[in-house]
């Protein structure tokens, strides 16, 4: 069997495998319970772990099929808190991990086939080892991406929360009630942070829950300690009638100072990183001058 025939057979097998994979992960139907949970808002804190998904997304369909088989695997860590911040479903996350791992698994054999077609023969152990290593690396790559995006979203949430607290203070100073202050302040902004808070307040209004209880659940699910502090303060004024305008102002001020300190730290770190290339260029320049001077001395001595 010629090399060209082997390459064609390998490509055919790969295509058949991909077709079987697509057929295996056919679209699945969402259950009635999941749909009703999404509409009513009941069990909102459980939606993070529920395999509800957008079935128009291929990654979500793949993840929905994988979810029942991966839920009991200990070494597959699902960052539910980070996914909740980004509003990404667990099935979509699992589908993205599986598809990226599949790409890593397929790339080395394809590259090896192309090399064979070009007349370059390599041992079969190389694409096998490369496939496993690349698939493992790409399988865990979405975890790092999700973590970085979630941290950036939390920082943005903290910045917007400072402005939100100031709006609450203005409403409380004007004699508006605690619940109305929270709702009016959330309706002012149009960023995703204000919309997220407004959604939780509207959900609390529909279900008859206390708004600070709903926000406390949001702070717990998303790991937002700054929002938890606001909830604690508003609980005092809502349940005990305490005047907390000054406390809220101090909280907003401390939040801004913390953000400013963090930004200054990042700026200082970036400045330090800029010094390293300049110092390296200076060292190279001095080395060139030293080499030239030593060369001139040896030439002068030889003459």
TrEMBL record:
Q: How would you describe this protein's topology in the membrane?
A: Multi-pass membrane protein
Q: Which InterPro entries does the UniProt record give? A: T2SS_GspF_dom
Q: Does the keyword Transmembrane apply?
A: yes
Just give the chief location class.
membrane
* A Pfam family the protein falls into: T2SSF
| Record's subcellular location | Cell membrane
What residues form the membrane-spanning segments? 6-26, 98-118, 124-141, 278-299
Query: What keywords are assigned to this protein?
Result: Cell membrane, Membrane, Plasmid, Transmembrane, Transmembrane helix
Q: Does the keyword Acetylation apply?
A: no
Residue span, Type II secretion system protein GspF domain: 172-290
Q: Which PANTHER family match?
A: INTEGRAL MEMBRANE PROTEIN-RELATED, PILUS ASSEMBLY PROTEIN
What this protein is called in its record is Type II secretion system F family protein
Which species is listed as the source?
Rhodococcus pseudokoreensis
């Amino acid at each position: 069997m010629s090399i060209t025939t082997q390459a064609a057979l390998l490509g055919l097998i790969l295509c058949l495998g991909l077709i079987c994979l697509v057929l295996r992960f056919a679209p699945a139907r969402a259950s009635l319970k999941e749909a009703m949970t999404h509409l009513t808002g009941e069990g909102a804190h459980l939606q993070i772990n529920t395999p509800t998904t957008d079935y128009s997304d291929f990654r979500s369909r793949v993840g929905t099929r994988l979810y029942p088989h991966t839920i009991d695997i200990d070494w597959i860590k699902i960052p539910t808190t980070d996914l909740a911040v980004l509003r990404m479903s667990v099935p979509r996350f699992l589908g993205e991990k599986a598809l990226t791992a599949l790409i890593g698994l397929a790339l080395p054999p394809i590259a090896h086939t192309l090399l064979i077609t070009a007349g370059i023969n390599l041992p079969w152990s190389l694409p096998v080892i490369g496939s496993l290593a690349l698939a493992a690396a790409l399988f865990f790559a979405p975890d790092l991406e999700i973590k970085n995006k979630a941290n950036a979203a939390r920082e943005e949430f903290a910045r917007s929360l400072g402005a939100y607290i100031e709006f609450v203070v203005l409403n409380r100073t004007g004699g508006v009630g605690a619940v109305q202050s929270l709702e009016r302040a959330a309706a002012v902004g149009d960023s995703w942070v204000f919309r997220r808070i407004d959604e939780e307040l509207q959900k609390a209004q529909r279900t008859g829950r206390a708004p600070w209880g709903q926000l406390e659940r949001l702070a717990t699910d998303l790991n937002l300690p700054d929002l938890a502090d606001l909830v604690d303060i508003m609980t005092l004024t809502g349940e005990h009638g305490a005047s907390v305008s000054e406390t809220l102002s101090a909280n907003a001020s401390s939040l801004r100072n913390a953000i400013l300190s963090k930004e200054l730290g990042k700026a200082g770190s970036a400045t330090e990183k800029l010094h390293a290339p300049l110092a390296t260029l200076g060292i190279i320049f001095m080395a060139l001058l030293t080499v030239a001077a030593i060369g001139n001395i040896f030439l002068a001595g030889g003459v």
